[in-house]
Design a protein that fits this description.
Elements (H helix, E strand, L loop, with lengths): L16 E7 L2 E7 L11 H9 L7 E5 L5 H9 L4 E6 L2 H13 L5 E5 L11 E6 L7 H12 L2 E12 L4 H11 L2 E8 L2 E7 L2
Length: 199
Amino acid sequence: MTEHYFSSEPAAKHKPQSFESLLLGQRLTFRTDAGVFSKRKLDRGTKLLLESLDLGSARKILDLGCGYGAIGLTVAKLAPGAEIWLSDVNRRAVELAEGNAALNGIGNCQFRAGYGLEPFAAIKFDLIITNPPVRTGKEVIYGLFAAAKGHLVKNGRLVLVMRTQQGAKSAQKKLAEIYPVVREIQRGGGFRVFECVNS
């Protein structure tokens, strides 16, 4: 792999494909392409994250690093009265997510392309959800965790999934330095889901 899906403008030649997903009672069709994460099917970490997610009363929700929209669009279907934002540094991914929203008749979404939380200026969210790009290294993902705190309302939550063998335990320690409340809410298939609450 000469290029990572975290690139803003993937150089990989287009290889469009699609698949259907049935999760939490929501059937969705996803169009994907080369140069985006988990292009053939929903990955196990994303499934575990969605299955363990409690939306609560959240009405302004961000899917950070949305890829082709698996998390954000599923949440948008589950919470049609909420405002869902999807963002990714990868412009190809954002275009796919926007297209997948239209394909599935989902209208309560907004899309932004850009690095991390930079596209959101002073916008704050009730809930930020992410399957972080762990292959980019700790400096990148820890920076995303810290930036997310500044974009959460009081008692807002960051919920994320990480593979245990790719640094979930050390990430949990780092999260505890940033957030007053950090708890593991689910574990399975080699992944752990953490919920962090802003003060």
